[in-house]
Amino acid sequence: MMQRALIFFSSNPIALRLSTPTPPPVNAVFPKRNGGWIAPSSSFLLPLLRLQNYQHTFSPLLCSASDSVTNQPKMASQDEQDPRISKISSAIRVIPDFPKPGILFQDITTLLLDTKAFRDTIDLFVERYREKDISVVAGIEARGFIFGPPIALAIGAKFVPMRKPNKLPGEVISEEYSLEYGTDKMEMHVGAVQAGERALIIDDLVATGGTLCAAVRLLERVGVHVVECACVIELPELKGRERLGETPLFVLVSST
């Protein structure tokens, strides 16, 4: 199974990242952890994917019906860097060559040990979503279960776990999504959400965007409006943001 909290080394000199001096250009997106800015990457095509639940082929695989509107990057305090962001970034440990050589693992357990950084992480999300009339916070297994419940409590929403197959005891609705090799499924309880509700999807990290897309499709199938997806960390070179299509994505830290 693909590790989601991964960033791959590349020796390719033609990388899809550009650095520009401060101040950022008009179309600048989000700050790098070590300074500078990352410009938006160009669109790309994904392979055809056959999803059993839909009985037709998606190309490219996007979360919403249309991919005509580019998902514009959203970061905490875009206009003026919030001092809390740098502390959150520094609290995240990067472990090289885990789970195998050539991979940098973004370890949020050290963030959880830092009570101030952990609280600031929750507060930044709460400040963004408190007034957005969100009734559902959907957390993706497993680290979405860490950040989702405190956010849900603070904004007065219910928390809905989005789980791997055969983990929920009641009747479930499922959504299949593609991995690098093969497929996986995401499930939630039937009746956990109602048509017309407004949802926030939360996870610790967005890499290729496969699980976030599956969560969006699962909620939209039952008539829920997905207001936004939110993650602590983004790995921009894996282009998960592009895969989300029109569904907004908000992140605190861009890892490069």
Describe the structure.
By secondary structure, this protein is α/β, with parallel strands linked by helices. The protein is built from six helices and 15 strands. It has helices at 83-91, 109-113, 115-129, 144-155, 210-221, 240-243, and strands at residues 6-8, 30-31, 37-38, 49-51, 56-58, 74-75, 93-96, 103-107, 136-140, 158-162, 172-178, 183-189, 198-206, 225-234, 249-254. The strands form five sheets. Strands 6-15-14-13-9-10 form a six-stranded parallel beta sheet, sandwiched between helices. The chain has a three-stranded antiparallel beta sheet with strand order 1-8-7. Strands 2-3 form a two-stranded antiparallel ribbon. Strand 14 (225-234), helix 6 (240-243) and strand 15 form a beta-alpha-beta unit. Helix 1 packs across helix 3 (115-129) and helix 3 crosses helix 4. The longest helix is centred in the middle third of the chain and has 15 residues, at 115-129. It is globular.
List the topology elements.
Blueprint: E1 6-8, E2 30-31, E3 37-38, E4 49-51, E5 56-58, E6 74-75, H1 83-91, E7 93-96, E8 103-107, H2 109-113, H3 115-129, E9 136-140, H4 144-155, E10 158-162, E11 172-178, E12 183-189, E13 198-206, H5 210-221, E14 225-234, H6 240-243, E15 249-254
Parallel strand pairs: 6-15, 9-10, 9-13, 13-14, 14-15
Antiparallel strand pairs: 1-8, 2-3, 4-5, 7-8, 11-12
Helix pairs in contact: 1-3, 3-4
What is this entry, summarized?
Helices cover 22% and strands 29% of the residues. It is built from six helices and 15 strands.
